[in-house]
Amino acid sequence: MPSIKFKENWEESLQLFDAWFNHKPTGRPLMNLLAVREPDKCLSTGFSSIDYDSPEDMYLNTDKVFSNLMYESQNTHFMAEAFPQFSMNLGAGSMALYLGSQPSFAYDTLWFSHFLEDYASLPLRFDPDNYWFKKHLEITRRQVELIKDTDIMVCIPDIIENIDIISAIRDPQTCCLDLYDHPDELKSALQNISEIYTKYYDSFYELVKKPNQTVAYTAAGIFCTGKTGKIQCDFSAMLSPSQFDEFILPSIKRQCDEIPNNLYHLDGPECLCHVDSLMAIEKLKILQWTSGTRNPRGGDEAWYDLYKKARSADKGLCILLNEYSVEESIYRADALVKKFGANGLFFHFPVMSQKQAEALMIKADREWK
After folding, report:
1. In this structure, are residues 21 and 286 in contact, taking their beta carbons and an 8 Å threshold?
2. Cα–Cα distance for residue pair 250/253, rounded to 1 Å
3. Nearest to residue 27, comparing CAs of 42, 12, 38, 40?
4. The predicted structure's pLDDT at residue 1
5. What are the residue ranges in the chain where pLDDT is below 50?
6. Of 97, 94, 86, 103, which is closest to residue 147 (Cα–Cα)?
7. From 125, 194, 266, 267, which residue has the greatest number of CB atoms within 10 Å?
8. Pick among 3.20.20.210, 3.30.70.100, 3.40.50.11270, 3.90.190.20: CATH of 10-367
9. How far apart are CA 199 and CA 130, in angstroms?
């Protein structure tokens, strides 16, 4: 296969991501900007779209996923900080599989079986011989082989951490009861999960990092020099602030220490009560807020107080504007830059035409610096 290059400004984007994660000036905001190429500017990769035979095939057939990625990317112009990324997740929270869950594949999701009946009978540990961990490493090695003649980045998969994993292998309702019935055992398990996460993360990191030490993470369209990743605790929607601080905060602080280029995914208004604790973590770098389907979308004025709190704590913001029309997303971004300044912001825009994207780049350079 001839060498294929999809993105033109890798060095500039890397410099901006490095600056963003390290709270340094970026000039204009970072932008995840995907444009549909004009017909006469489409690339020819020689790949075609391939149907999957089953949900398992969609998750596990690396060659088919790569062919579809190449086919889709030939019509896409990766502008600003958007980049071609090759992600193959075994669900959101694949550590559940590495620890002993069995998967139930579906085209729209992947479910994990519950198996942890109590904390004493089955100690949680890093198992390099686990079938699904070895399978995921095999998939990742094949990904790295397939992209060798391209500038696509293979992403670290969505391993997920802390009590989100415990709830996946035990079940959320039982985890809620554990907070009261087995608090010490739960704390010990959470500490164990944090140690295990590091080993799984490092295994994938060593496989996918580039010679210049850059690495991409499967969530939020991020890459950077050195260890990079997303941190979350969706289960925190069911926790009081005191429970969050007691049970969850230690593992989040540990991950921020170990993954310097970190982004915290805060999901849903029920989690907003934990923002003060999160913003007090010195080494937490970026906040990405997902408001939920029944609430105003990202970038809405309803969230300005949250954004102000993050910027006051010297945290960057990843703001999802991709659910708006192109025109409204630009309007929202313009208002955000006027309110908070250009530095520290990363906008995700909806897919747009080449002409619209070029006009947006001009606007960003002229008005948002």
Report:
1. yes
2. 5
3. 12
4. 63
5. none
6. 86
7. 266
8. 3.20.20.210
9. 13
